[in-house]
Amino acid sequence: xxxxxxxxxxxxxxxxxxxxxVRIEDALGEHYADMASCSAPEANGCWSLELHFxxxxxxxxxxxxxxxxxxxxxxxxxxxxxxxxxxxxxxxxAGLRPVQAGRFVVHGSHDRHRIALNRIAIxxxxxxxxxxxxxxxxxxxxxxxxxxxxxxxxxxxxxxxxRTTAQHVLDIGTGSGVLAIASAKALRRRVLASDIEQASxxxxxENANINGVGGSVKVLHAAGVKxxxxxxxxxxxxxxxxxxxxxLRDMATxxxxxxxxxxxxxxxxxxxxxxxAALASYRARGLVxxxxxxxxxxxxLVLQRKASARSFAARMRRP
Length: 319
Description:
By secondary structure, the chain is of the alpha/beta class. 37% of the residues lie in helices and 28% in strands. It has two domains: 8-91, ACT domain (Alpha-Beta Plaits, 2-Layer Sandwich); 131-317, 3-Layer(aba) Sandwich (Rossmann fold). The protein is globular.
């Protein structure tokens, strides 16, 4: 089980409008464990937002996530404090309904009996606030994975012709492990998942075991993809990165190097206004856009490293 702190951490902030508040809740709720939120209108027309974390969060990363969807002044005004233990998270998530995206259904243990046998079920306990599949970027990635899975047979035929060993999937910024678990179940491949949060690493391992794919999902605590373990499993048939624009741009070159010829790269965590900048970074490295998924103001891009891009990747490896 994941080790929790003895208390919770509370973050307070003030926003000018309801839409900004919702964007902040969505962005943070997708990336942080044991987070619950409470909002209320203020007399001056603004909204106050309180965020409760069950484990001590990376405050700098929270501010970066807020800045991605709101004015910098909002993140600068945030204040953090430690509180006594509460049950806010479990209470706020107990009513979450299953989320369907393509053939995938993400659900809590309380809905296990309701999932149809022809669906690919991914069980995430209701005590976890992030990675429950309710965020549009996670749903977009699941739809993208469903799209890729339908091409699995042609991917394997191409791999056999090229005598490549591209059998692994890489999930960067795995969160609760939803995408890693979905990949292991749908593609029947081994998955390497990573996250910069130690709590996310522990939760992904736990969730992979709950879903019966613990032997197929290896989890690393890592920032970026520079460790030898990432290269050891390359080239990857599929790379998933549901994170933020700047790290997506920073990792465009190493991600391209890790992708197999004809392999897919799915990038998400992008408000629609940021999608063109992310796409430009990957197109410049030879990847081709094969599908764009837009849900609730968030974009998911499905890219492919065509076999003809092999020489491009080779040139990038030269000193």
